[in-house]
């Protein structure tokens, strides 16, 4: 059976330790409008984009190798099913090979058959594929700052 969950991977010359640290720095690559902590098992954090919010609980951490976030609440205001992400999971895998580190993010439950897939795929492609990669490689990501500026 084919895995249809959204997934994105990229390689970096950064260490697994640096990749792990930067993934946990959600405000550095996703959005400055974040509440809560993003570093330890059982930490809960919420990201906000206007009316849209997603709350995650960190359910698993293996330092420098793996992080799992479970969606415990959300309001995806532009969708018919505003709770579409509830109980989905975001898996981060970090693998060191030779002088390279491979980062893979898989959003379990974000599949082509659900309403938000196309827009969410574009969002993850940008925030993980561009912003997180830039944070890890250059020390400066491209997080959403428009909301934070109005708060």
Question: Helices, strands, pairings?
Answer:
Layout (H helix, E strand, L loop, with lengths): L5 E7 L3 H9 L1 H4 L4 E3 L7 E6 L2 E11 L3 E10 L13 E9 L2 E9 L8 H22 L7 H5 L1
Antiparallel strand pairs: 1-7, 2-3, 3-4, 4-5, 5-6, 6-7
Structure description:
The protein has helices at 16-24, 26-29, 117-138, 146-150, and strands at 6-12, 34-36, 44-49, 52-62, 66-75, 89-97, 100-108. The protein has 151 residues and is α+β, with helices and mostly antiparallel strands. Strands 1-7-6-5-4-3-2 form a 7-stranded antiparallel sheet, with helices on one face. The chain is globular, with a radius of gyration of 15 Å. The mean pLDDT is 94. Helix content is 26%, strand content 36%. It contains 4 helices and 7 strands.
């Amino acid at each position: 059976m084919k895995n249809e969950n959204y997934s994105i991977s990229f390689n970096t010359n950064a260490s697994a330790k640096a990749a792990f640290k930067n993934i946990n720095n959600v405000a550095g690559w996703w959005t400055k409008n974040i509440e809560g902590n993003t570093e330890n098992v059982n930490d809960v954090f919420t990201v906000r984009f206007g009316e849209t919010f997603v709350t995650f609980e960190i359910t698993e951490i293996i330092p420098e190798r793996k992080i799992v976030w479970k969606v415990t609440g959300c309001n995806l205001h532009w969708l018919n099913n505003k709770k579409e992400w509830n109980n989905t999971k975001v898996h981060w895998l970090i693998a060191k090979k030779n002088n390279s580190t491979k980062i893979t993010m898989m959003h379990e439950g974000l599949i082509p058959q659900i309403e938000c897939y196309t827009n969410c795929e574009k969002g993850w492609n940008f925030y993980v594929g561009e912003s997180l990669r830039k944070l890890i490689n250059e020390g400066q990501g491209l997080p959403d700052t428009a909301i934070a500026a109005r708060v």
